[in-house]
């Protein structure tokens, strides 16, 4: 998979940009604040339908009414398609050229994996770790996105109902409790399915994570998926999930929110057998976060994903820079941002793009 042409209009700092990237390594370089990250963020928008750097309205160029991102993409089977995303009135619309505009969930997204400095939070934030699993599941399993969206809706409704039962006391408790049981039935089905999707993604990432970290650092690191409802992965898991949720009903009512479910899934990281967050230096944590993203990339290899490395190489020594590029499978399209072209080792297919020549 590769992008043959990328066009931006009123996106972030770019009023107009037209770019024809090379099939291999594309190094977009220039001074800080020149718009490099905005280019690769547009690629991520076509991949995930979201941004790590703020709400949708903030992605529209100041003074413009809407933003547009378009990419001509060549798939692994040699077929071309044009993906387009538009931000209008705080909403994201998407389509393949010639089709009707709809929500991003109707689009077959661009397979891509991105690393940026904020990924250091993967070592400390459960929310960020869940987001990584979600990204992997979105691209590997088309049904996951719709199921997760439905789960979040049911979770919100269940949480509201739990608070209402707690506030009502004994007065209307019986009727509300019956409604809660109905929500729990739907909640169980979705939680069971999402947990299994995530476990599969975590297993694929984990199997590569140890090898990748050792190759980059020479140390042993491990990753372990920690589901909130581990019985979902056992034989007869759905019934076990239902029973577990039923057993925790009174505790959930007392707290006023859902105590169990995929919203509390996580995974643990270990360095030489110890919790990574407790023993890792800043550099070791950086390499762990990068190794997670590279392992996510490896897990999606059958899709031929694009790799985005935003402002990464300046933090690494020359040996690790070379190790990252040499680990990529042949034919991978890579987008790297850097303040200097000297930060990135030259490899076959290397294409240096001064940011001032764009737009």
Describe this protein's structure.
This protein is an alpha/beta fold and 359 residues long. The protein is 42% helix and 21% strand. The protein is built from nine helices and 13 strands. The protein has helices at 36-48, 126-140, 142-168, 173-217, 237-247, 249-255, 276-279, 282-299, 318-326; strands spanning 2-11, 14-19, 25-29, 66-74, 80-88, 91-96, 112-115, 221-226, 266-271, 274-275, 306-310, 334-338, 351-354. A five-stranded antiparallel β-sheet has the order 2-1-4-5-6, covered by helices on one side. α3 (142-168) packs across α6 and α4 (173-217) packs across α5. The longest helix is centred in the middle third of the chain and has 45 residues, at 173-217. The model has no long low-confidence stretch (mean pLDDT 90).
**C-alpha Rg, in Å?**
22 Å
Q: How many helical elements?
A: 9
Termini gap: 24 Å
| Proportion of strand residues | 15-25%
**Overall body shape:** globular
- The assigned structural class equals alpha/beta
Largest sheet: 5 strands, antiparallel
Provide the low-confidence segments as ranges.
none
**Physical arrangement of strands within the biggest beta sheet:** 2-1-4-5-6
* Overall strand count: 13
Average residue-wise pLDDT: 90
Query: Could you state the order of secondary-structure elements as H and E?
Result: EEEHEEEEHHHEHHEEHHEHEE
Helix content range of the residues, please? 40-55%
